[in-house]
Amino acid sequence: MKLNKELFTAGALLLAVFATASNAADRNLIYAVGLPEANNILEGIVEVPERLEDRTGGALGVENHYLSLLNLAQTLGGLRDGIADIGFIVSAYHPAELPNMNLIVDLAVLGEDPVTMYAAFSEYALTSPTILQEALNNGYVLLSIGAGAAYGLMSTEPMDTAAALKGKKIRSFAAFGRWAEGAEGIKVTMSFNDIYDALSRGGLDAVVVSPGSFFHQSFKDVASYYTDLTIGTFHGNQTGMNLDTWNSLTDEQRQVVFETYGVAMAEGVHALNAFNQYVIDVKAEEAGLTILEPKEDLVAYTNSFSESDIQFVIDSAEEKYGITNAADIVSEFSAVVEKWEKLFEGVDKSDFNAIDAIMQKELWSQIDVSTLANPGS
Question: In whole angstroms, what is the distance from residue 334 CA to residue 327 CA?
Fold first, then answer.
């Protein structure tokens, strides 16, 4: 979609008038987030303005604009066009622009634990010249990767068997869409921002999502059931910075920005994972929602789907986007996932400091920030 740059720029300037009064930094960057501020995945992002100002001695600040400047589908184009300096990008919305990134995103069935997938994808993406260059080709520098909680099925009626999915309209995408279609459900593609209305009007029967969305997006008002089945993880969120903005920063500022957003996204993954478990264990019942355990036939179908879908991803990447080494990429990424599974073995995932210490040692300290805009250098 072609964005009206003048219109959005005018909106950004108007929003900045109100935001600047509470931000005393010498230069305020604009961060477009197409999600509500209350979403746990943004827990660290909310803290970035103060942290960045403190760490740069007041030279840099950030104005976070939630659901007001660019929606999730618009963010990639808006970031490229300079409507925002920084953006929260959902890779799955842009398969043609980000084919190599989405090859990894499409391996949802590899994921059971979002913390592991976050760490593995962060290492893979931030050290891959191909993925870093892909971001640059779209006008931005990749700063950090995020991951959601494990995805199950939220619905307006009980759907805990494979047979219950037949003929149902299920908002899904990528591997999750194939999972729905494989059970003879109807895959429905739409922006995340449109799901609430679709559920309320009967345009959807279910959505593949994490349980926290009952509260983050108020889906509890339009859906009452959640089948606690791990279909896979969605590990395709990114934070990116407009290339011109990146080039305008000093080396020291780039280092601080990279480190700050890396930790912020990690905090979001940790908080989201914890909140989703709390929803399953406590909060859903308090709100009158029903958590369902999947029946054996649904578990068996999902396991069978997972085994076959990896080859589909490889074939699709080669056929649609000409990624001739897709099988090698999948093998390489799988090895990185195994590496992080071992690194986190025995680690209390509820302890963010323990996770962060491993991330600092094994990843953040190993990244040369200069390579983000000069991959392969």
Answer: 11
For 273-292, write each residue's pLDDT tens digit: 899 999 999 999 999 999 99
Taking the whole predicted model, whether its pTM rises above 0.90 is answered as no
Residues 201 and 170: their CA atoms lie apart, in Å, by 14
Q: Under a CB-based contact definition with an 8 Å cutoff, are residues 250 and 335 in contact?
A: no
pLDDT-wise least confident of 161-165, 241-245, 248-252, 273-277: 273-277
What's the gap between Cα 208 and its chain centre? 14
Contact of 134 with 96, CB cutoff 8 Å: no
Two tokens, residue 195: 């799901």
